[in-house]
Amino acid sequence: MKEFDTNEEIMYALIIDDLDATISADDKEILEHWRKASSANEKVYQEFLNVHVNMDKLFEKRGYDVQSSWEVLDKKISLSAEEVPVVSMRSQKAKLWFSIAAAILVVLSVGYYFAFTNRYEVISTGSKGAYIFLPDHTRVDLNSATSIRYNKHDFINDRKLELLKGEVFINVTNHKLPQFKVVLGDIEAVDIGTSFNIVKTSSAIHVIVESGKVALTQASLEKEVLLTPGKLGMYDVNTKVLAATDNLDPNYKAWINKEFVFNEVALAEVADQLSKVYKQPIVIDGNDLKNRKLTAKLHYQTLDSAIAVISASLQCKAIKSKDTYVISVD
Question: Which parts of the sequence belong to the FecR protein domain (predicted)?
């Protein structure tokens, strides 16, 4: 890597490596330390993140070829750079940031915009998930196809986050501040010192508490359900019924940590869960194989490793064709 003009450019490069999931463990530690050093640093990171997730959404929505689009932008910027005196060589990573800045102008010109208003900040993910830190340092992990918004000017005084759609895992911090609330349409999830997972679809809302407590409140009917660790809160949008039960899904956080626990689970269901988390299709060849039961604990960053363990456990074979895995009897 070439020398940077300033430490700021080094951090820009590390941020881009992080967003591209190519950052090394040592660089990741440096970046995390820099982010925690000041709110200004975290704001810079969030600006990069907002560009990243919204560009993903734009390309997904309009069907553009991301790589070719970057190449076109890169050529344009390179041509423009020839007309400007250069004091020193900049790294390719720093150059990519200027490409991103130029891409924002292209995004605006085609009618797509980042959803920032005078009051709210809206963050949406495309085909990939992301995580952010709110102004109070609460961490929010967003699954793919998820949108949230919050009042960026007065969040500390009114800690209210709105989940518009999708799935989030929230680890609330700073419990001495006003109570943290998640707005979910007809109901609210009120934090009582906790971490919890929320899924919101057009027909239902599911809340699973990992630690602490969450109060699900339904103001219109003056109803409240208190959730403790291991409990699942359910709200039916159509019937307006709010209820609580035990959480029977040990893999509700697998979309974040890729940790799976299967106890006599049919391979068809296993394949469905893995496919959703790793974003790759898995085909099971044969009904008998679909019903074969798997008992295993999986914790792998790549689907290749998980499939290898399944194949060995169930004595079957797996072939990868393009982006699809086909599992069949040996």
Answer: 122-214
